[in-house]
Amino acid sequence: MTEAFERKRAIRSANRGVITKYVKEATELFSKIDENGCIERLTTLDRLLDEKLKFVRKLDEEILETCSVESITQDIEEAEEITSKVYDIRKLRKSKLF
């Protein structure tokens, strides 16, 4: 693998970690929904998750174009897992706040 390819994978991995952190924080905030600042922070997290997910998806596409055939399935499954986490937390936000 080239250094540029490995760099993209490392950047994607770090961004996936940030997404996981945001999802965890949002989940914790849902249990304190009536406290001051929770709704505003949840709105911010929703926007941050949207931006991160778009960025990670772009990297996913670039990586899938150049990765080995053997790793395609794993890369796609990992991408779907992250996407699912984001969609689940966003759905929960909508059901709790609206």
Structure described in brief:
The chain is mainly α and 98 residues long. It contains 3 helices and no strands.
Structure notes:
This protein is mainly alpha-helical. The protein has one domain (3-95). It is 85% helix and 0% strand. It contains 3 helices and no strands. α1 runs antiparallel to α2 (38-66), α1 runs parallel beside α3 and α2 runs antiparallel to α3. The longest helix has 29 residues, at 38-66. The N and C termini lie far apart (47 Å).
Which key features would you list for this structure?
98 residues, mainly alpha, elongated
Tally of structural domains:
1
Number of helical stretches of at least 4 residues: 3
Q: Which residue ranges are poorly predicted, with pLDDT under 50 across at least 5 consecutive positions?
A: none
What is the H/E order?
HHH
Structural class: mainly alpha
Straight-line N-to-C gap: 47 Å
The biggest beta sheet reads: none
Q: What's the rounded overall pLDDT mean?
A: 90
Percent of residues in beta strands: under 5%
The level of helicity is over 70%
Total count of strands: 0
Radius of gyration: 16 Å
Which word captures the global form?
elongated
How do the helices and strands line up, and which of them pair or pack?
Layout: H1 3-30, H2 38-66, H3 72-97
Helix pairs in contact: 1-2, 1-3, 2-3
